Amino acid sequence: GEIRWIMEMVTPIVFKGEKAVLGSSMDITEQKEAKETLRELDALKSSILDAIPQAVVGLQNRKINFANTAVHEVFGWCPEDLIGKSVTVVYRNEKEADEIARYFYTTLEHQRTFVSEFRCRHKDGHDMLCRMRSSRIGDKLKERRIVITYEDITEQRRAEEELASSREQLRNLSVYLQSVREKESTRIAREIHDELGQSLSAL
Q: Could you say which of 122, 136, 143, 153 has the lowest number of CB atoms within 10 Å?
């Protein structure tokens, strides 16, 4: 009851002066199953990449060779538009892109992963702060093949800075109020002292 895939090959030939056909059969069930498994793995990989909220890009010698759908949300680029482009398109300028690349590749020579924060640029031109996580592909940094995820943390950092500023203002206000209370206490104590002194003098 098992189904097998058979590939038939037919070639016209001349046999003993007559036209004939030479046929051969090959069982390709394993090859078909292997191809189907690869297709399923590719589909699974695509699904996993597209489920990740951060932009994910693969690089080979600083050229983008794959990108997930989140690059549109993070950078405004369609994934297919980035394939084949230099990764410099997501940075503010070539000089900064070269510095970031030098920093990343030098670090990844000695360790498998690396996390840092850098300024990037959206397709529409506005600047953004991204937390970047990179990992080399394979045990060695061959052909500078790496994967990078980009998380836009601009609003998060702004909120943290505003919170820190608010806390600093509250601390300053608390110090000021404490100073006012101490001055007021000193003034009241002085007035009481003076009134008491006057009363005693009158006696």
A: 143
